[in-house]
Design goal:
The protein has two domains: 1-57, no CATH class; 75-127, no CATH class. The chain is built from five helices and three strands. The chain has helices at residues 7-18, 25-33, 47-53, 59-71, 97-107; strands at residues 76-80, 116-118, 122-126. The protein has a three-stranded antiparallel β-sheet with strand order 1-3-2, covered by helices on one side.
Length: 127
């Protein structure tokens, strides 16, 4: 996930983040089982793949995508954000969405659970 409304920038960041996973057959095969094609998983990943795997937008948009997963039945959604230069409090980047969402969820009256840091670059939120 990345906090930007610039679609091309989000895809650039997303492709960089997915680069390593595109080299792992288990990830590629799973994406194919989910309906992605050979064209989607070659040459850095298609726009379709990147848009599906890396959410971009405002903190509200990122939180909305997480809610969509919970509403679809997920009881656990694990996320991370691509590393960018500090100074986010987690050290991940200047606009690290995971810390923003953790702060928002921790202060939300309609969410009973909290968030916990995971390896300094992500958070796990359970429904």
């Amino acid at each position: 996930m990345t906090l930007t409304d610039d679609v091309e920038e989000a895809r650039r960041i997303g492709r960089k983040h997915l680069e390593i996973y595109l080299g792992f057959p288990n990830y590629v095969n799973n994406w194919k089982r989910l309906g992605f094609t050979d064209d989607d998983v070659t040459d850095g990943g298609s726009d379709r793949l990147v848009d599906a795997m890396v959410v971009a937008g405002s903190v509200d948009r990122v939180a909305e995508r997480v809610r969509e997963h919970h509403d679809a039945g997920a009881d656990h959604v694990s996320r991370s954000c691509p590393r960018t230069p500090p100074p986010c409090r987690c050290g991940s980047g200047p606009t690290c969405p995971v810390c923003c969402i953790a702060d928002r969820r921790a202060s939300s009256s309609n969410v009973a659970d909290g968030a916990r840091p995971v390896m300094g670059v992500g958070i796990e939120l359970s429904k």
